Every structure is written in structure tokens, then in C-alpha cells.
Amino acid sequence: MSDVYFERELETMERGRIEALQLERLKKILAHAYGNNPVYRKSFDAAGVRPADLKALSDIARFPTINKTVFRDTYPMGLLCVDRKRVVEMHMSSGSTGTPVVMPYTQADLDQWASCMARCYAMAGALPSDVVQITPSFGLFNGGFGMYHGARRYGLFVVPTGAGNTARQIKLARDFGTRVFTGVVSYGIRLMEELEASGQALPELKYGIFGAEAFSDAMKKRLTEGLGIEVFDIYGMTETGGVGTLGQDCRAHDGIHVWEDHYLVEILDRDTHEPVRDGEIGELAITALTREALPVIRFRTGDLSKILSREPCSCGRTHLRLAPIMGRVDDMLIVKGVNFFPSQVEQALMSIPGVLNNYQIIIEEENGVTDVRVNVEAESGVTGFAVEKVLKEALGFSPKGDVFAPGALPRQEGKAKRVFRRLADGTLA
Ligand code: DLL
After folding, report:
1. Is 305 part of a structural domain of the chain?
2. Cβ–Cβ < 8 Å for 126, 118
3. In angstroms, rounded to a whole number, what is the distance separating the alpha carbons of residues 116 and 137?
4. DSSP code, position 206
5. 282-288 and 321-322 beta bridge pairing
6. Overall number of domains in the chain
7. What is the domain range of residue 368?
8. Which residue ranges have their beta carbon within 6 Å of ligand 1?
9. Pick from 281, 305, 328: which residue ends a domain?
10. Whole-angstrom distance between the N-terminal and C-terminal Cα of the chain?
11. Mind listing the pLDDT tens digit of every residue in the chain (429 residues)?
């Protein structure tokens, strides 16, 4: 397959070279964190390890892991590893728990982010001077600015719409000939629904780059067919430096290529936090190899995935491929003794003809027994009974299924909230 690259040599270097580069960079970044930040120094000391103890990549397992808690405890910038005067930008996420996570950037960090993101645009097939419409919000959320920095680096023509006002988004996409549309997954769905409802088409549009939310295969298929474009799954998070830092799938659509010259990937057992073998599902932990202001070291992301392959891909890239993110460790629901993820509910719902794209999973408790109710929008003719039957087959127990008219369920701007708890007074939280 002939492919478009932003940094061809780095994206296609053979595995031995990737690992040699990772080892060299890992030694440096451990020394940087240990030497320049007291929080890292204390935690390495408490674990009885020094940067100099790392001789091979696998020695990383001797170093302590961190998670979002350390960001909360050190808010606003207690993990900073450079002089404050070198910080030129910050982004922040508050997550579902409200914990503020701040990521400061030096100019070199912004350049690194832009390069990672530029690789993602190229990997989707975009060419310099193509028009990209950036719909994640511009602000503390990293989505809008990350896509912007990368687009400028790659030489795209940016239409920086930010979030919302879908009718205007469609008008601008037509007027400017948008070829690449970017957004959070639920905004891709919104675009598709509005185009369908208004009978409009965007003939110039070729590529959709979506992420920030769990993205079932069934939903990818709907977006691909509904928008008539090629759809990509882009990955990244505040703590690793934002959207695109961790990569995206290529045109072979066979897993997310993680930019391994910039990030070291581990999959850890959810409970013991010990590394698991390739192919086993676990919590993704990331070490940032090239970031200055705040390099995460063994950051437990809370995201579940597995390593699909470290073999070269048909696109020519050699960077390992991860399975699409299955969900977050703390998203797992346990009802009637059955464990499942919201993404499994989505996958099952989307397989039902006539079922639309907006749904809610409601956890309710009655007389001390936990139950699940799934509300979903559907065309007339789809019954709650049919929904319940499919969910039962997919999940192994029977949630209640309620069908709503198109547009009847609430929608949020930004990331969609899919899972709710019913409070004692009947309201949803
Ligand atoms: O959501 C970065 C981003 C913006 C990615 C726009 C893609 C597009 P945060 O707000 O810090 O950053 O949230 C990061 O979102 O740990 C995952 O749980 C989830 N997430 C991000 N991308 C994907 C994806 C942005 N492609 C958190 N598939 C991560 C599934 C994703 N989950």
C-alpha cells in the first residue's frame, strides 16, 4: 500500500532501531524527572530505584507507576520538571471525577505534539493544503488546539470552527470544501444525523478523524457509511500531551499505531499492575520519552486495551498497534454478577436495524437489587422487547429496554455522557 507520511523515516524504522532509541530516551527522561522534580525523586527513592538502575527497557517495571491522583495532589503544577519561565501553554481536563489534571508545555513540547498530530493527519491520507475543519472546542480541552497545532505543522488549511452549531458547520464545510473533518465521536454522529435529516451532502469530504470517547466498531461502520468517508480513531489524553500524541489507526484500520519513538507502552494487569503479555487485555500505562515540562513516567491511564501487533503494518509503519480502547477500568459495570462495558451495550444496540445513535445506560436500584435500563432512540417499529432480546444475547442478562422517538433523549456538547445512576428522588446523575 502506498501511504502518506509526515516523518517517513521515523514512522517506518525497524523495530531494533525503535527499541534502541527508546532505551536511550528512557534513560534520559528518568534522569530528567528524578533530577528536576521532588515528587518524582521521592517516589523513586521510596521504591529504591535510581535512573541509573535502568539497563534494559524491561527494567521500567522496577519504577513506580502513577495515576491521576498524583496530578490532583500536586495541582496546579507540582509535577513540573522545568523552570516555570519555560512554560508557554497549558491544557486541563477535569474528567468524570472533577479532578483537575494540568498539562504544561514548553515550546519543544508543543513542537512534539504538533509532529505527532501531523503524523496522524498524514496517516489518514490528508495532503498539505487540504482543508481541515476542527470541531473539538478550543480552550482548556486539548482537542481543538492539538488538532490546530498539528494542522499548522503539516500545512493544512484550518477552518477552526470549534464545537457546536451544526448547521453552520455544514455550511462552512460546503463553502470552504472541507476534506478532513475532526471531532469527538459523538460530534461525528451529530454531523451525520443533521446531514441525513436535512438531506444535504458534503461531496468534498473524504476523511473523518474522531476520538476522545469509546468508539465501538459498529459505530465506526455507521459513521463510515452514513458520511460516506473513511473514518479514523485518534487517541491521546491530557496527561500524555493531548490528542494525537498516542496515535491513530492507519488506512489498513488494523489497530492504533502508537508513536513509539515518543512513548513507551506497557499493558498492566488491572489488579496487580504487573506487565502482561502481548495480546492480553489490561490497563495501558504510558511513559513519555520526549516531553520536557511534564513527562509522565509509567502513567496508568485507566484505559483498557491490548497490544495487537509489533510487526510492521501493511501501511509501512512499524510502530506497535493497540486494540481500540475498550473502555476505562472504572467504567466496568457489574450487574447481577455480570461484568460488562458500556461499549458492549453500544455494539449490541447498533446491530439492531432501526435503532438510532443516541442512548443512555441507567443503573437503578430497587429494593437493594441493582438493575440496568437502556434507553435508546429508534425509528417507529422498533420495540423495547426487540432491544431487550439483543441485549440479553450480547450481555448474558436482561436489562430493561425502552425505545424513544428520534431526538427525544438529551445530548451534551463535547464528550457524550452515556452512563447514569438513578438517584433516590428519581433524577439521573
Ligand atoms: O480526549 C484527547 C482527544 C481529543 C482525543 C480529541 C481524541 C480526540 P482527555 O480529555 O484528557 O483527552 O481524555 C482522555 O479520553 O484516557 C480515554 O479514556 C478517552 N479517549 C481518548 N481518545 C479515545 C479513543 C482527550 N480514540 C481520555 N477511543 C482517555 C476511546 C478515547 N477513548
Report:
1. yes
2. no
3. 19
4. -
5. unpaired
6. 2
7. 332-421
8. 93, 136, 142-143, 184, 211-215, 233-238, 242-243, 301, 303, 325, 328
9. 328
10. 48
11. 469 999 999 999 999 999 999 999 999 999 999 999 999 999 999 999 999 999 999 999 999 999 999 999 999 999 999 999 999 999 999 866 677 999 999 999 999 999 999 999 999 999 999 999 999 999 999 999 999 999 999 999 999 999 999 999 999 999 999 999 999 999 999 999 999 999 999 999 999 999 999 889 999 999 999 999 999 999 999 999 999 999 999 999 999 999 999 999 999 999 999 999 999 999 999 999 999 999 999 999 999 999 999 999 999 999 999 999 999 998 899 998 899 999 999 999 999 999 999 999 999 998 888 999 999 999 999 999 999 999 999 999 899 999 999 999 999 888 999 999 999 999 999
User: Which of 328, 351, 377 is the last residue before a domain boundary?
Assistant: 328
Residue 349, all three cell numbers: 444496540
The torsion angles phi and psi of 112, rounded to 5 degrees, stand at: -60, -45
Q: What CA–CA distances, in Å, run from 311 to 21, 271, 280?
A: 17, 28, 16
The CATH number of the domain holding residue 172 is: 3.40.50.12780
Q: Whose CA is nearest to atom 22 of ligand 1?
A: 212
Between the CA of 260 and the centroid of ligand 1 the distance, in Å, is 18
Identify whether the C-beta of residue 323 lies closer than 8 Å to the C-beta of residue 305.
yes
Instruction: Show the cell assigned to 49.
Output: 530505584
Write the residue with the smallest CA distance to atom 19 of ligand 1: 212
Q: How confident is the model at residue 97, as a pLDDT?
A: 67
Question: Do residues 323 and 398 share a domain?
Answer: no
CA distance 281 to 373: 27
**Ligand 1 center to residue 18 CA distance, Å?**
25
Q: How far apart are CA 240 and CA 310, in angstroms?
A: 21
- As a residue count, the chain comes to 429
Beta strands in 177-255 (DSSP E): 180-184, 207-211, 230-237, 242-249
**Residue among 171, 219, 216, 217 at smallest CA distance from 194:** 171
| Claim to verify: residue 301 and residue 341 sit in the same structural domain | no
